[in-house]
Amino acid sequence: xxxxxxxxSTQECEKLTGIKARKVAELCGGGEIDGYxxxxxxxxxxxxxxxxxxxxxLDYTPKPxxxxxxxxxxxxxxxxxxxxxxxxxxxxxxxxxxxPMRNEYQLRYWIANNGRVFDSDVGIYLQPDIKxxxxxxxxxxxxxxxxxxxxxxxxxxxxxKGWLVKDEVHHIDKNPLNxxxxxxxxxxxxxxxxxxxxxxxxxxxxxxxxxxxxxxxNKKW
Length: 221
Hints:
Elements lengths: L6 E3 H8 L3 H9 L5 E3 L5 E4 H11 L7 E2 L5 E3 L2 E3 L8 E2 L7 E4 L8 E4 L4 E3 L4 E2 L3 E3 L2 E7 L5 E5 H9 L8 E4 L12 E4 L1 H12 L3 H15 L3
Antiparallel strand pairs: 1-3, 2-3, 4-5, 5-6, 7-8, 8-9, 9-10, 10-11, 12-13, 13-14, 15-16
Helix pairs in contact: 1-2, 5-6
């Protein structure tokens, strides 16, 4: 295959799109974008294919700007080292708040209270898939292995009270794809069964009352 103007090195692709060169190589090697491997084991990538992939996976304007680790900015809002572990407001969407995901994820990923997940290494929002009726994304842990991460659990962990004593998450509006923190509540297994029974019996008043009671109880934790 001859090199044409459409085929660029991964470094050139990074300059043109902002996507890290190593991520471009992963996409090309995995067959997600068009390209080929040279004799020197480097990738030449079809820039049109990469931009098509980028447009499909990016749904925000403007692009986040990176100032180097640990400084990070969403839109025009910068985050310095002293506030790195605190949730911050997004400049891209109203009422959107981001929190860094700590521990095994080494602050690479950020999760928003509306369920969006941002990969700061690559500079993109992750496109979720659906499994068992719930949104999930694949995240890379410290041991370099990817794992399924259910978004509703992440949002509830970082933005809802009650996770210290309860281990299940309930979607209040019955829509398992609505992962806004306002729609999530931590419950015990018994509480979860109780809520589903109220819904099954059509007891909307009793259901709303029980949600209020559980929320009040969760504030203790």
